[in-house]
C-alpha cells in the first residue's frame, strides 16, 4: 500500500509566549501543498525484521531515528503490526519549514490504520501524531487550519486561495530552528491571525508576518533576497515558511523562475 505525504506552508507565524515546559505558544495557519509530496510504501515482510529503504533526496541521520520508524514503533504500542518493508521516496526538501518529516510520520500512522483495518479514529491518530512532533497532527486531516498552542490546537480556517499560483523556493541553506527561537522575543500580535487572514490577500504583505524572518534574514541575507525577488517578480504575498529556509510566494499568474540552479523550485496552481 502506498500514500503520498505532502508538504505544507505556514501563512503567518507569531511566536506569542514561552511556556514553562520550554516550548512556545504560537499562532499560525497551516496550508497543505498537495502538489509537492513524498511517496511512502509499506508491504508485509516475510523476514522477521523491518526493512527501511529510501530514494530521492538524501535523508540525514540514521534510519532508526526517522519519524516514520518512530511512528511504526508508536503504533506497535497499541496494536500488533507484522514486520514490514518500508520505502520512502523523498522529494520534499528536509529542514526547510515545509513539514516533510512530519507529514511522513502522520501518513505512516494513517497508512498502518488503513492497511491493517485498525479502525482508529481521527482524534486517536491526531493524539498519536502529537507524540511524534508538534507539526505532525495537522497532516491527519490534511486541510488548512489555524493552529495555536505549540502548533497542535486546531480551528477551521476559512481561506480560499483558488486561482493563485504558489511558488516555493528553497536555497541550499540549513536553518537551526533552536537558534532561531533563541533570537525571538515572544509577543502577542496586535490582532489575531484568524482575523488577519480574512483580509484580502493583496493586503497580507503588511499585515501577516513570520516572526522567524527577522533572526533568519539577519543570519542568512540570501533567504531575505529570495523574498524580495518574489515581490519584484509580481508576488501578491511572500513569506518564509516555518523557521525556513523555504520561501513561498502567491501570484495571480504563473511567475518566471529567475533562480539559480542550486535552488529547489516548486510551482503549482492552487
UniProtKB/TrEMBL annotation:
Its EC number is 2.7.1.148. GO terms for biological process: isopentenyl diphosphate biosynthetic process, methylerythritol 4-phosphate pathway; terpenoid biosynthetic process. The keyword rRNA-binding does not apply. ATP binds at residues 93-103. The active site is at 8, 135. Keywords: ATP-binding, Isoprene biosynthesis, Kinase, Nucleotide-binding, Transferase. Residues 66-139 form the GHMP kinase N-terminal domain. Residues 213-256 form the GHMP kinase C-terminal domain. Belongs to the GHMP kinase family. IspE subfamily. This is 4-diphosphocytidyl-2-C-methyl-D-erythritol kinase. The gene is ispE.
Amino acid at each position: 500500500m502506498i500514500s503520498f505525504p505532502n508538504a505544507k506552508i505556514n501563512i503567518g507565524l507569531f511566536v506569542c509566549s514561552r511556556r514553562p515546559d520550554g516550548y512556545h505558544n504560537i499562532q499560525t495557519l497551516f496550508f497543505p501543498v498537495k502538489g509537492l509530496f513524498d511517496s511512502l510504501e509499506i508491504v508485509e515482510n516475510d523476514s522477521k525484521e523491518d526493512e527501511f529503504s529510501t530514494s530521492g533526496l538524501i535523508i540525514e541521520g540514521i534510519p532508526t531515528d526517522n519519524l516514520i520508524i518512530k511512528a511504526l514503533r508508536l503504533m506497535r504500542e497499541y496494536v500488533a503490526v507484522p514486520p514490514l518493508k518500508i520505502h520512502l521516496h523523498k522529494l520534499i526538501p528536509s529542514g526547510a519549514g515545509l513539514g516533510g518529516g512530519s507529514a511522513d510520520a502522520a501518513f505512516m500512522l494513517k497508512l498502518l490504520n488503513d492497511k491493517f483495518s485498525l479502525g482508529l479514529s481521527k482524534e486517536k491518530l491526531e493524539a498519536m501524531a502529537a507524540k511524534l512532533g508538534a507539526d505532525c497532527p495537522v497532516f491527519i486531516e490534511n486541510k488548512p487550519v489555524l493552529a495555536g498552542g505549540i502548533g497542535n490546537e486546531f480551528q477551521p480556517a476559512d481561506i480560499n486561495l483558488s486561482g493563485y499560483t504558489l511558488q516555493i523556493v528553497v536555497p541550499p541553506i540549513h536553518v537551526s530552528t533552536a537558534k532561531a527561537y533563541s533570537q525571538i522575543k515572544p509577543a502577542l500580535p496586535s490582532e489575531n491571525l484568524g482575523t488577519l487572514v480574512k483580509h484580502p490577500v493583496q493586503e497580507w504583505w503588511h499585515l501577516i508576518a513570520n516572526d522567524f524572518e527577522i533572526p533568519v534574514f539577519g543570519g542568512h541575507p540570501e533567504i531575505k533576497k529570495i523574498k524580495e525577488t518574489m515581490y519584484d517578480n509580481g508576488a501578491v504575498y511572500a513569506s518564509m515558511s516555518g523557521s525556513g529556509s523555504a520561501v513561498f510566494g502567491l501570484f495571480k499568474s504563473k511567475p518566471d523562475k529567475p533562480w539559480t540552479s542550486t535552488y529547489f523550485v516548486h510551482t503549482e496552481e492552487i
